[in-house]
Write a structure and sequence with these properties.
Order of helices and strands: EHEHEHEHHEHHEHHE
Helix content: 40-55%
CATH class: Alpha Beta
Oligomer: single chain
Strand order of the largest sheet: 3-2-1-4-5-6-7
Radius of gyration: 18 Å
CATH superfamily: NAD(P)-binding Rossmann-like Domain
Structural class: alpha/beta
Distance between the termini: 40 Å
Shape: globular
CATH topology: Rossmann fold
Length: 276
């Protein structure tokens, strides 16, 4: 990527990105943060075209440009079509962010109860989609590009949230895949990293039953996140944008927690002992 200074707020001017699942939530936050830095963004959506157009409007308000592209990341032909549209409209690709979540609430089930259908659905929208996405994206990506997978640390590294089994194990697979892709693509100076978002307001968390959403967000505010609040889509977007800079070109194959320090807190020690 060009040697552009991060002191310039539009230090990624002239770059092109595809962010899957970017019509709302964390994906929208990533798309808008990249747009603020001058990136033109292809906004992928599955069903909600109005939300995708709203994201595109906000991208243009940031002074950047882009287009919306419908596609189901679980289908190889849809991913190929997305890259084809990026080629037609942008002519190149510099940033690929694998963010689309799929129907998370539909395949939440504990490990001993999860059906094979639920497992297959999680696999198709996560691990398999990332494999297909990287292969297609790198056929168009310029040398020095950036690839990122959005993950979730407690789901991929712990095991206590049992209904998250299908998604969590697939997130762990994404993180492992980043390491392999990082080595394979290093000769082209393409970096590949996983960004683990913490519990984020204005995201899939808000699609849970109201009582569950409020319980999760208030839990963090009590001190289980040392920042005293949940994350925002803009927070995750900031982490992704930072990894897209030229100065981050030596960071690859890593899993980075962008969670305000939530993963630093220990469940074995009373919270009062951990407060600053």
């Amino acid at each position: 990527m060009d040697n552009l200074s991060t002191t310039d707020k539009r230090y990624l001017q002239g770059k092109f990105a595809l962010v899957t699942g970017s019509s709302r939530g964390i994906g929208r936050g990533i798309a808008l943060k990249l747009a603020e830095k001058g990136v033109s963004v292809a906004v992928n959506y599955l069903k909600d075209e109005d939300a995708a157009n709203d994201t595109l409007t906000k991208i243009r308000e940031c002074g950047a440009d882009g287009f919306i592209v419908q596609g189901d990341v679980s289908k190889s032909e849809d991913i190929a079509n997305m890259i084809s549209q990026v080629r037609d409209k942008f002519g190149a690709l510099d940033i690929f962010v694998n963010n689309a979540l799929g129907n998370l609430l539909g395949f939440m089930s504990p490990p001993m109860q999860v059906s094979l259908e639920q497992w297959d659905e999680a696999f198709h929208v996560q691990s398999r989609a990332f494999l297909m996405g990287v292969r297609e994206a790198t056929s168009l990506m310029r040398d020095g590009g950036r690839i990122m997978a959005i993950s979730y640390w407690p789901g991929s590294h712990a095991g206590g949230f049992l209904p998250y089994f299908a998604m969590g194990t697939n997130k762990a697979a994404l993180e492992a895949m980043c390491r392999y892709f990082a080595v394979a693509l290093a000769p082209r100076r393409i970096t590949v990293n996983a960004v683990c978002a913490g519990i984020t307001d204005d995201s899939i968390v808000n699609a849970l039953p109201k009582e569950a959403t409020e319980a999760m967000l208030s839990w963090l505010k009590q001190g289980w996140n040392p920042m005293g609040r949940p994350g925002t889509p803009a927070d995750i977007g900031g982490a992704v944008a930072a990894l897209c800079t030229e100065d981050a070109g030596w960071i690859t194959g890593q899993t980075i927690a962008a969670d305000g320090g939530a993963t630093l807190m220990s469940p074995e020690v009373p919270l009062d002992f951990q407060r600053p």
